[in-house]
């Protein structure tokens, strides 16, 4: 496939280009803070940039009318409204975490929540590399949104950690911890590749990575 990346020069942009090139896909469009370069019109766009770049991403998708795979975090309700608007015309796959493990963990969180009552404490902890700009992580927000109460979230920024998430459920006398740790960015880029390879066959609409994994 011929694809484009927004956030091309970033950590994820570089890791995506490496995996996609190994899989035989061709980068024909790239955009970062320094500008854009288009060799030819891409079949789809992959966005792993920053929230500040989101208005530009919306503009690019509107102009090109091509599908979007987006993993950028920090997006708010207004941004999701825009994603829904784009999804009326093109397929959009959005997830704050493209790893298989976190998507299984999110199923488990919902399952545990069905067993416990208000007497249980629930807290989420996330650890990422020192360069990560947003806090709490998109994944921590996504996990807390699965539970119908306010959850305390704890963020650490340490060295080069790729991404660790823990969800604690505790009552007097016991604690249950669900934990996921990414050992490399491959944890995410493999999910991005799977999404990109499937998106060209999808009808317009807003899809999650879980939709892609389970269909
Ligand atoms: N959903 C998931 O599975 C995952 C999501 N992420 C998310 O992906 C995003 C990128 O992470 P990471 O690669 O580590 O971040 P980086 O800071 O390394 O990269 C950000 C990229 O965005 C570009 N950028 C910044 N502002 C603009 C702008 N206004 N217009 C166009 N491009 C812009 C930067 O360009 P320049 O270098 O020129 O400044 C850079 O290429 C983050 O939101 C992160 O949370 C990360 C991992 C997994
Ligand atoms: O910035 C990162 O690196 C990551 N960001 C995502 C998030 O905010 O949840 C996903 C992953 O944990 C890595």
CATH architectural type of the largest domain: 3-Layer(aba) Sandwich
Q: From the alpha-carbon coordinates, what is the Rg to the nearest angstrom?
A: 18 Å
Can you write the helix and strand succession as a string?
EHEEEHEHEHEHEEEHEH
If you average the pLDDT, what whole number results? 98
Count of beta strands: 11
**Hetero groups:** NADPH dihydro-nicotinamide-adenine-dinucleotide phosphate, the ligand O=C(O)C1=N[C@H](C(=O)O)C[C@H](O)C1
The rough form would be described as: globular
The fold-level CATH name of the largest domain is: Rossmann fold
- From the helix content, strand content and strand pairing, which structural class follows? alpha/beta
Fraction of residues in helix: 25-40%
**First CA to last CA: what distance?**
21 Å
- What proportion strand? 25-35%
Strand order of the largest sheet: 3-2-1-4-5-6-11
Layout: helices, strands, pairs:
Layout: E1 2-6, H1 11-22, E2 26-32, E3 35-38, E4 44-47, H2 54-64, E5 68-70, H3 77-86, E6 91-94, H4 100-115, E7 121-128, H5 138-144, E8 152-157, E9 164-171, E10 174-181, H6 186-199, E11 205-208, H7 209-214
Parallel strand pairs: 1-2, 1-4, 4-5, 5-6, 6-11, 7-8
Antiparallel strand pairs: 2-3, 7-9, 9-10
Helix pairs in contact: 1-6, 2-3
Bound molecules: NADPH dihydro-nicotinamide-adenine-dinucleotide phosphate and ligand LZUJQKHR.
Give the gist of this structure.
Homotetramer. With 215 residues, the chain is α/β, with parallel strands linked by helices.
